[in-house]
């Protein structure tokens, strides 16, 4: 979801096949903790870049453009939304993150709303409920605000995921679709 920077600035240990059976999945989920990121030191930044790069594998037009870009982008996310930068951890290992901004001026809405600037789970850990845990934390944090995000037009999986949480497509800009979840 790298549009924002352009416009604003602008291995689970899965089985060998990469598939977790239900028992392994439950055991992984009990170990996943969602935490606010405390500091963006070099080691953490490198791990987040690694996740950002591999999460978007096969979808380079929408993210993971390159490591130096990712570094600038993630630092921007950290400076813009420290209090809403949540990570999913298994033990000490970060396996995913979501960046939630409670003070985003949307020029499309003409007012300040909540925003999700980035959302990614390590490819090896995708499909096991970690994204859901991160999204729930984000919705708890952004509470009663309207929330805006941009998603790649062909990123069907992410679009379906957002729809389940009440986001609706409200506009389009190039290859990007703008989705908004109106407060209830
Ligand atoms: C979008 C993303 C963050 C979701 O994280 P995740 O940990 O894979 O999500 P979950 O495991 O919680 O799955 C949530 C739902 O996604 C769908 N899903 C998960 N894995 C899937 C797969 N392999 N194929 C199709 N749908 C899948 C399912 O609907 C799933 O619901 P379920 O729990 O009923 O099975 C993650 O897939 C990702 O990093 N994608 C690449 C980056 C990206 O697109 N970010 C969003 C940009 S705006």
From TrEMBL:
Spans traversing the lipid bilayer: none
Domain N-acetyltransferase: 35-184
Keywords, sorted A to Z: Transferase
InterPro entries per record: Acyl_CoA_acyltransferase, GNAT_dom, MshD_Acetyltransferase
One function term, GO molecular function aspect: acyltransferase activity, transferring groups other than amino-acyl groups
SUPFAM superfamilies per the UniProt record, alphabetical: Acyl-CoA N-acyltransferases (Nat) (SSF55729)
Pfam families: Acetyltransf_1
Name assigned to this protein: N-acetyltransferase
The species this protein was found in: Thermococcus gammatolerans (strain DSM 15229 / JCM 11827 / EJ3)
